[in-house]
């Protein structure tokens, strides 16, 4: 049940933002209009990440709140925020494959800096990967 809540809760918010980015790529608008729209969507995604209530999100992802889980979540969130900032510079090339690469890089940091199990890191990866959809 926690996985369903996870997919629904933040997924709705982030999915809306990412959906907007998809519309950007399919839009008949001019280049400057598309660039402005993409910048706004990436900024909105970053804002959404900043507004996370960590204990609630940990409960959704893992079904429990632990110090190690909190550390893993915050590392992944920080890495994604950093990568999204980098994407602002090259947002026109954003697609699912590139986003998943960012998620994998964030999970590598989580693995290096926490004692989380592979299963919990995979669950965290799935949570962030699903946000693209």
UniProtKB/TrEMBL annotation:
Residues 70-116 form a coiled coil. Keywords: Coiled coil, Membrane, Transmembrane, Transmembrane helix. The keyword Coiled coil applies. The chain crosses the membrane at residues 6-27. The keyword Coiled coil applies. This is Gas vesicle protein.
């Amino acid at each position: 049940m926690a996985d369903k809540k996870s997919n629904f809760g933040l997924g709705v918010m982030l999915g809306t933002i990412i959906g907007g980015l998809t519309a950007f790529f399919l839009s008949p608008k001019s280049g400057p209009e598309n660039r402005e729209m993409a910048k706004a969507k990436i900024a909105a995604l970053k804002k959404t990440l900043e507004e996370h209530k960590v204990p609630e999100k940990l409960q959704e992802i893992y079904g429990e709140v632990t110090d190690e889980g909190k550390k893993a979540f915050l590392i992944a969130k920080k890495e994604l925020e950093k990568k999204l900032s980098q994407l602002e510079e090259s947002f026109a090339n954003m697609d699912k494959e590139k986003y998943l690469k960012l998620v994998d890089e964030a999970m590598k940091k989580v693995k290096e800096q926490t004692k989380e199990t592979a299963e919990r890191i995979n669950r965290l990866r799935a949570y962030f990967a699903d946000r693209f959809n």
